[in-house]
Amino acid sequence: MDCKIASELLPPYFDGELDRTTSRELEAHLDGCAHCRDALIGLDALRTTLREEAPRHPAPELLRARIRKEISRTSVPMQSAAFAARSRHAGWLAMAASWVVMFAAGGMWMSMRNHAGANEDAQSQISRDMFAGHWRALAANSPFDVVSTDQHTVKPWFAGKVSVAPLVQDFTAQGFALVGGRIDYVGSERVPVLVYRHGHHLIDVFVLSPDHAPALDNPVQSQGYLQETVMLGGQPATIVSDMGGADLAHFAQLLGSVK
Question: Which residues are CB-contacts of 28 (< 8 A; sequence separation ≥ 6)?
Answer without folding.
Answer: 1
